[in-house]
Design brief:
single chain; 229 residues; alpha/beta; Rossmann fold; 4-stranded antiparallel beta sheet; 10 strands; 34% helix; 27% strand; globular
């Protein structure tokens, strides 16, 4: 299992942001979790990225229990795309990837960066400053950054937010190719139709509690939309 969570909870100021979340995500799966604003999606993604500690419950990632002893090693096997791209705008796309590759101690930084620039369709813009890129291009470089260390698990927190239609289609194709290559993808989203199109399984989070967990082929789109209202 890429993700195993049992009774996972997170409290802030005596308020339950997550409450009793149970998850089993096999390696190689593409999961989309939906929910309205404030449902707890970002908190869950941060816990899965080992950036936030749960208040209660048990969590295993990539076959290992999450603890102080394992968290550093786990972070080297997890890629995260958050609301912020985590890129230096004054540096070029290639310079950003080189820097993050060195932070992970990679020895083949140059080859790895160029391979990822080609994968995300920006090899010809590799020497341009990130500040000159569109929102969609920045998001593609952010994905390349998250993949520099070849993570086994890719977490994506609403990666399509703010993208135009063309950029959305390009990013959808990229995520589909990563899934086809065997990556485990766990993505939060606001878009039911897109989630049903991309993911193998859809989860719905409301007020910190999972209220649905179904294979996409078994989901009634109309019921899913109403569950998110």
């Amino acid at each position: 299992m890429a993700i195993e969570a049992s009774g996972l909870g997170r409290d802030i100021d005596d308020r339950a942001i997550l409450d009793g979340v149970n998850l089993r995500v096999p390696e190689g799966a593409f999961i989309s979790i939906l929910g309205p604003n404030g449902a707890g999606k970002t908190t869950l993604l941060h816990i899965l990225a080992t950036l936030t500690r749960p208040t209660r419950g048990d969590l295993r990632l990539l076959g290992q229990p999450v603890s102080r002893a394992t968290v550093r090693g786990l972070r080297c096997r997890i890629g995260m795309i958050g609301h912020q791209p985590m890129l230096y705008r004054h540096l070029s796309a290639r310079e950003n990837l080189h820097m993050f590759g060195r932070l992970y101690g990679l020895t083949n930084v140059g080859n790895r960066a160029d391979a990822l620039l080609e994968k995300v369709g920006l090899l010809d813009r590799g020497d341009d400053a990130v500040a000159t890129f569109s929102r969609g291009m920045v998001q593609r470089i952010a994905i390349a950054r998250a993949l520099m260390h070849e993570p086994a698990l890719l977490l994506a927190d609403e990666p399509f937010a703010g993208l135009d239609v063309a950029s959305m289609r390009a990013l959808e194709g990229l995520l589909q190719s990563l899934h086809a290559a065997g990556k485990t993808i766990f993505m939060s989203s606001h878009d039911p139709a897109q989630s049903l199109r991309l993911a193998q399984r859809v989860l719905v989070l409301r007020c910190g509690t999972l209220i649905a967990n179904c294979p996409t082929e078994e989901v009634d789109p109309d019921l899913l939309v109403r569950a998110l209202e």
